[in-house]
Amino acid sequence: MAETSASPTLLLKDELDIVIPTIRNLDFLEMWRPFFQPYHLIIVQDGDPSKIIKVPGGFDYELYNRNDITRILGPKASCISFKDSACRCFGYLVSKKKYIFTIDDDCFVAKDPSGKEINALQQHIKNLLAPSTPFFFNTLYDPYREGTDFVRGYPFSLREGVPTAVSHGLWLNIPDYDAPTQLVKPLEKNTRFVDAVMTIPKGTLFPMCGMNLAFNRELIGPAMYFGLMGDGQPIGRYDDMWAGWCTKVICDHMGWGVKTGLPYIWHSKASNPFVNLKKEYKGIYWQEELIPFFQSAILPKDCTTVQKCYIELSKQVRAKLGKVDEYFIKLADAMVTWVEAWDELNQTGKSSEVPNGAAK
């Protein structure tokens, strides 16, 4: 795909929603205005629903708070996390668009090594519209990028590639570290801009970060559940990683691709490592059980839809991870509730309800 063409951005103007979880005024949107203003925003307000969140003028958006979530989902609202950025997945649920881009409100426009501002959204769109190559690694990384191709020895039968379900972007400045790493490297910054996009190979897991992420909602949306985190739960800050592990297992099963690399955003502030440690410490132990679980997870051939895959995965979570901690039994139930809510909203059109805080 030609790097100089802006057509992917224009093409998806009416096919993509930008989902933003927040607890504060969205002044950061001013910096993104040249890139985001043509698109529809879905803002998911976390915390106190009586707090007024200010959005800069000129943006087309819907704003949902906890009262809206409860009103729209009813009892199924129990599957949406409270006081955690995992609440963002409610935006995926109510969107009607084919694609989703989600970004945190402490993420600003980054610059490439030449000093040019990076249109992260446009790069995500390029990633999603180009095929992936999960079954055979190309040593020049993305073979569909202008100026490159498949290398010698790459099977011709695999060069058509497969649909890309997920585009995982990276960050300059503050890295996405866990609390122990934050504590031992408090001043470390990521200054390295790697001009590359690659497909994560089939059978390989990765730690997905939700602060700069895009995906094909029609393909993989029902698996993009960020779990039960935050208030009332024994764990936090594993929401995006949980979604990433589930999504990768399902993409591998369905024959779809996941890309990582460009685009970069500028991550402006590090969260408190001591607060993070309190949220993460059980996850740090549990992940030693979680990773082998997902590495060995096998989905039956009759799992022919993402929903069937996700329900099957929930059964395996209950049976195997339920032995690690009873929290995973609760999480398995929430996974089922999530799929039920997805099917309900996306079959009956209930997600077209206008939220209390809506603005056009």
TrEMBL record:
GO CC terms of this entry: cytosol; Golgi apparatus
The keyword Iron-sulfur belongs to this UniProt entry's keyword annotation: no
EC number: 5.4.99.30
Top class in the EC scheme: isomerase
Places the protein is found: Golgi apparatus
Keywords associated with the record: Cell wall biogenesis/degradation, Glycoprotein, Golgi apparatus, Isomerase
Principal localisation: Golgi
Cleaved signal peptide residues: none
Record-marked site positions (Required for activity): 152, 159
Record-level GO BP terms: cell wall organization; plant-type cell wall organization or biogenesis; UDP-L-arabinose metabolic process
Glycosylation sites: 152
Catalytic activity: UDP-beta-L-arabinofuranose = UDP-beta-L-arabinopyranose
Record-stated family: Belongs to the RGP family.
PANTHER family the record matches: ALPHA-1,4-GLUCAN-PROTEIN SYNTHASE, UDP-ARABINOSE MUTASE
Physiological role: Probable UDP-L-arabinose mutase involved in the biosynthesis of cell wall non-cellulosic polysaccharides.
Name of the featured protein: UDP-arabinopyranose mutase
Organismal lineage: Eukaryota, Viridiplantae, Streptophyta, Embryophyta, Tracheophyta
